[in-house]
Amino acid sequence: MEVTGSRYKGETKNGRMEGKGEYTFPTETKYEGEMKDGMFHGKGVLHFPNGSKYEATWENGIAKQGSFTFADGLRCQEKDWDYCDGYDRRFYSERCNGLRPAGESQLTDLHPPRVIPEWCYDCGDGFYDPTTKVVTSYMGRFLRNADDSEHEWIVCTCRKAWDEVVGIDPEKSPSIRPEETSNIK
């Protein structure tokens, strides 16, 4: 475990994880639950650094049945999922707490949204720096290097730190000629 950066605290048998324990991955994802012969086995919960969790029944290291709950409490449903279905695009917090007043748009499920570091993107599980192609957690820990496909998705899809001008840029648009003005008041 020292080689991979993982940690284990709990019961053992013959030098292997056995019984109840807590296994922490290098990414700080943590499994709490039952172990058998060095593997997740029985009931257990994976807690992710962003606050979400996956509760499951495991057999020899494989999740056989489980459920995922997002950090905000929204529980994922395999059937009859009506969240963000195209007809109702509210954030989960808006469904629970109501819409914000006019003029106070809610950009993310978290309100107010996280402040994104300069020239970076908020990619959902952390911040992405396009110059280094590195994703770090919101707390600043290294998460991963983005490949070209993820880079393209992030820069095309995710919220960025800077504002982009939308509409006509008065600096670049031709000046208005007197014959184009209206006398209607």
Helical content band: under 10%
N-to-C order of helices and strands = EEEEEEHEEEEHE
Residue share in β-strands: 25-35%
Query: Globular, elongated, flat, extended or rod-shaped: what is the shape?
Result: globular
Per DSSP E runs of 2 or more residues, the count of β-strands stands at 11
Structural class: mainly beta
Number of helical regions: 2
Radius of gyration: 24 Å
**End-to-end C-alpha gap:** 77 Å
Q: Whole-number average pLDDT?
A: 82
Describe what is shown at a glance.
This protein has 185 residues and is mostly beta strands. The protein contains two helices and eleven strands; from the N terminus they run E-E-E-E-E-E-H-E-E-E-E-H-E. The chain is globular, with a radius of gyration of 24 Å.
Structure description:
A hairpin with a 4-residue loop joins β7 and β8. The protein is mainly β and 185 residues long. 9% of the residues lie in helices and 33% in strands.
